TrEMBL record:
PANTHER family: RNA BINDING PROTEIN (PTHR24012)
Keyword terms of this UniProt record: Repeat, RNA-binding
Name the UniProt record assigns to this protein: RBM45 protein
Gene Ontology MF annotations: RNA binding
GN (gene name): Rbm45
Source superkingdom: Eukaryota
Organism encoding this protein: Myiagra hebetior
Gene3D superfamilies noted in UniProt: 3.30.70.330
Annotated ranges, domain RRM: 21-95
Length: 224
């Protein structure tokens, strides 16, 4: 998608440029550049890896860059690497790196506080990160509420949520006064609903319109 947008934008830049081949990742502070290369070389040919360090102490900030030779390799790394790395396409170098790092870190922290992202310590190598012991568990269920500024089309929303196995039904409703979209989604298991919320909360559908996905009480014991 990023490559297609680049070609359609009318610019004459080479689509193999750094904007499409460099990814930004969150890593354990113990990682070296060699560790970073080792973890990401399976997705393609790496031109370079770099770890962002504190200018005063020289310690790793737990953030790094990986640049591939091809955009397709960077895209594969973003899609297939462990979600704990929070991999995204890096901002072009003409944007302040510190501003980008701050925005990236802030966004991921907000996701964590909403209970919308997998904790690092699900992976043993990430357990050097601080844990939020006071986080209140979010009540979960097999049923989800989906809200949008724009109305939904039943078939399209069903197809979107059916990407997660176990979809039982998708009930689209519309408020004639506000023209906003509202739907109730139900899965066969809470695990499927949790995964769907994790993947699709904040998803832009259609582009520019973010979906809000929350759990709905279904009367079952959420401790399961």
């Amino acid at each position: 998608v990023f490559i297609a947008q680049s070609r359609a934008s009318g610019s004459h830049r080479d689509v193999e440029d750094e904007e499409l081949t460099r990814i930004f990742v969150m890593i354990p502070k113990t990682y070296t550049e060699e560790d970073l290369r080792e973890k990401f070389k399976m997705y393609g040919d790496i031109e370079y890896c770099s770890i962002i360090k504190n200018k005063t102490t020289g310690e790793s900030k737990g953030l790094g860059y990986v640049r591939y030779l091809k955009p397709s390799q960077a895209a594969r790394a973003i899609e297939e690497c462990d979600r704990s790395y929070r991999a995204i396409l890096a901002e072009p170098k003409n944007k302040s790196s510190e501003s980008f790092e701050h925005d990236y870190y802030s966004n991921n922290m907000r996701q964590d506080l909403r209970g919308n992202a997998l904790p690092f310590c699900m992976q043993p190598e990430f357990c050097s990160f601080e844990k939020t012991e006071t986080r209140i568990p979010e009540p979960v269920s097999k049923r989800l509420s989906v809200v949008s500024r724009l109305p939904f089309i039943q078939e399209q929303l069903f197809a979107l949520f059916d990407l997660v196995p176990g979809l039982e039904y998708c009930d689209v409703q519309r408020d004639p006064h506000t023209n906003s979209g509202y739907a109730v989604i139900q899965y066969s298991t809470a695990a499927s609903a949790i995964y769907a919320k994790y993947k699709l909360h904040g998803f832009e559908y259609p582009p520019g319109n973010r979906l809000t996905v929350i759990f709905l009480e279904d009367g079952n014991d959420s401790s399961e």
